[in-house]
C-alpha cells in the first residue's frame, strides 16, 4: 500500500503543477492590473508610423517641372519657347525685335577681339587656343560630407 500511495501522491502533484501552470499563464500581469493614473496612460502605446519617402523625381520629371511654369502638368508652346524668347531679348540690343548679324554674333565677335592680341584681324595658334571654352565642373553624384574639426 505504501507504493500505491506514492503513485497517487505523485499523480496528484503532477495534476496540481499542471493546473498551476495553466492558471499562471492565463492570469493578467501586475502591470496590466494596475489602473492608469492619467487618462492618456490608458491609450495603447503604438510605434509611430513610418515616414514614407517619395521616390526621387526622374530627370525628365525635373525637366518638365522647369518648363511647366503654371504647374498644370503640361508644357504649352509659350512655356516651351520662353527660354528662347529670353535669349533672343538679350541678343536684341536695340530692342527692335530683329537680330542683325552683329547682334547675333556679338559674343563670338567679342571673343575674337579679345583673343586677337596682335589686333591684326587674324588668330595665331596661340591666340586661337585662348578661345577654347573652359569645361564646366560636374557636380558629384553624392553630397560630400564636410570635414569635422577636432
From TrEMBL:
UniProt xrefs under InterPro entries: EF-hand-dom_pair, EF_Hand_1_Ca_BS, EF_hand_dom
GO MF annotation list: calcium ion binding
Domain (EF-hand): residue spans on this chain: 79-114
Compositionally biased spans, kind Basic and acidic residues: 57-69, 138-150
Pfam families assigned: EF-hand_5
Renumbered residue ranges of the record's region Disordered: 33-69, 110-150
Protein name, per record: EF-hand domain-containing protein
Amino acid at each position: 500500500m505504501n507504493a500505491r500511495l506514492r503513485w497517487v501522491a505523485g499523480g496528484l502533484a503532477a495534476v496540481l503543477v499542471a493546473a498551476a501552470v495553466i492558471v499562471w499563464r492565463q492570469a493578467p500581469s501586475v502591470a496590466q492590473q494596475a489602473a492608469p493614473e492619467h487618462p492618456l496612460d490608458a491609450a495603447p502605446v503604438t510605434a509611430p508610423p513610418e515616414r514614407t519617402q517619395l521616390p526621387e523625381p526622374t530627370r525628365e520629371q525635373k525637366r518638365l517641372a522647369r518648363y511647366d511654369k503654371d504647374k498644370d502638368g503640361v508644357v504649352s508652346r509659350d512655356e516651351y519657347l520662353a527660354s528662347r524668347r529670353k535669349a533672343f531679348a538679350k541678343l536684341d540690343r536695340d530692342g527692335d525685335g530683329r537680330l542683325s548679324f552683329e547682334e547675333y554674333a556679338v559674343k563670338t565677335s567679342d571673343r575674337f577681339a579679345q583673343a586677337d592680341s596682335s589686333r591684326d584681324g587674324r588668330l595665331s595658334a596661340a591666340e586661337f587656343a585662348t578661345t577654347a571654352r573652359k569645361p564646366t565642373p560636374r557636380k558629384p553624384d553624392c553630397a560630400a560630407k564636410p570635414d569635422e574639426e577636432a
